[in-house]
Amino acid sequence: MGTHTAEQPAPVAAGTGTTAVPTRTGLLIIGASQSGVQLAVSLRALGFDEHITLLGDEDHRPYQRPALSKEFLQGTVESESLIFRSNEYWAEHNVDLVKGEYIVRIDRDADGSGVAHASSGRQFPFKRLALTVGARARKLEIDGGDLDGVLYLRNADDALALKARVGDAKDVVVIGGGFIGLEAASSLQKMGKNVTVLEFGPRLVGRAVGEETAEYFLQAHRARGLDIRLNTSAARFRAASAEGDKQTSVAGVELQDGTVLPAQIVLVGIGVIPNTQLAEQLELTVDNGIVVDRFALASDGTTVAIGDCANMPNPVPGSEPGERIRLESVNNAIEHAKVAAYSLTGRREEYAGIPWFWSNQADLKLQIAGLCNGYDRTVLRRDEERGKFSVLYYRQGQVIAADCVNAPLDFMAVKNALAKGRNIPADAAADPATLLKTITTDS
Ligand SMILES: Cc1cc2nc3c(=O)[nH]c(=O)nc-3n(C[C@H](O)[C@H](O)[C@H](O)COP(=O)(O)OP(=O)(O)OC[C@H]3O[C@@H](n4cnc5c(N)ncnc54)[C@H](O)[C@@H]3O)c2cc1C
């Protein structure tokens, strides 16, 4: 990532102080990450010709987050390759990219236009507003939480802070057995660290996968040498105990039962909180995210809100009426941005495609198609010899989702079947030697 001050485009605001009257942008996108970038790109593809300001608080050009817990942490990718678009692209497409500005307040007129105020004092007047503000890491509020070396992993600065400490660390405790925690734990283990994962709940990746997949990951990680402790939580973080030393760095994690695990790094990955502060200030409806309709419009009917910050109607065909969902994935940020781009150009197009997600943990490449909420049956497909594992989820005989580990053909077959409203009969799917695409049926 790095900072790229020399390449930073001119901000949209005309003046540098708070008194200058800045130019009004056609669309102000607050949050310059996966969904904000996609929104700007999709709008240009649809012929939206008004000026766009893509503004974010980070000091980096917009980059892809998934690598932060994987290749970037391990040092196997160049940071430049994570940047979404070149500065030339933004300039050619009449998009001002504004970095390092945190919006604290928005004043709104009745027609939806307004002015966004940054903590620096700069103002960003706009005709139309998009909130692509994502989510922030949930903090673990226990004793010692402010010690050096107690880290989170949500953005590039977090990843750089982690990388900076990794060289000197021997022991790492990861708190949270969700995707980010397990990805980072696998990466750190690969980098030669002694890694322990503490999971508060009775199984890994609590909400996102079913029991079989959670159990598969538990066994697979343990077989690869990760020390994973379920039903275990940290009571406090301990500082180095040498007398006379300034005790500002973490040295260990004390568990509820009094056990102390040595740790020169503690990485906390206990989920995220959607950034709804601006929406609340604008009196938009908020409920585990900014509540939007099928067209990505917030409760005022004019602001669009998309990606990790948005709570939307479940887009999966056949889901219960009124069922809502907030998704945290690259695929969702992209698809949701496309819906919002249509809305902003006066068209009404619903979410296309089936939500999907991936997570790479060591040599375990998980791909998830669909959402498994409300399943009543699972079918397990396991090929030990080839290291493949899939779980198909069914509701009333209809396949609704699949978790596939190192099984891309299963993933593609289920994703395609869901997208086309087709089915994969459960009994036939149970034979792992059967290619799922050959047994897909029309209902
Ligand atoms: C380490 C990591 C690994 C991941 N791995 C995967 C993966 O393997 N597969 C997958 O599908 N997904 C993965 N994800 C999730 C995926 O990256 C997110 O779903 C995606 O980034 C969401 O994009 P977004 O634009 O909605 O929100 P975000 O990426 O959170 O971006 C929101 C931006 O808005 C900024 N912002 C917030 N408030 C303000 C404000 N008031 N003023 C200015 N700027 C503001 C934030 O700083 C941030 O830059 C991963 C995420 C992380 C952190």
Write the layout of secondary structure elements.
Layout: E1 25-30, H1 34-45, E2 52-55, H2 71-74, H3 87-92, E3 95-98, E4 103-108, E5 114-118, E6 123-131, E7 135-137, E8 150-152, H4 156-166, E9 171-175, H5 179-190, E10 194-198, H6 211-223, E11 227-229, E12 234-239, E13 250-255, E14 260-262, E15 265-268, E16 272-274, H7 277-281, E17 290-291, E18 304-305, E19 310-313, E20 324-325, H8 330-344, E21 356-361, E22 364-370, E23 377-383, E24 388-395, E25 398-405, H9 408-419, H10 426-429
Parallel strand pairs: 1-2, 1-6, 2-3, 6-18, 8-15, 9-10, 9-15, 10-11, 17-19
Antiparallel strand pairs: 4-5, 5-6, 7-16, 12-13, 13-14, 19-20, 21-22, 22-25, 23-24, 24-25
The structure holds flavin-adenine dinucleotide.
Flavin-adenine dinucleotide binds next to helix 1, helix 8 and strand 21.
Structural class: alpha/beta
Count of runs of 4 or more consecutive helical residues: 10
Strand content: 25-35%
Number of strands: 25
Number of domains: 3
Give the overall form: globular
CATH superfamily of the largest domain: FAD/NAD(P)-binding domain
Average of per-residue pLDDT values:
92
CATH class of the largest domain: Alpha Beta
User: How much helix is in the residues?
Assistant: 10-25%
Distance between the termini: 47 Å
CA radius of gyration is: 23 Å
> Which ligands accompany this protein?
flavin-adenine dinucleotide
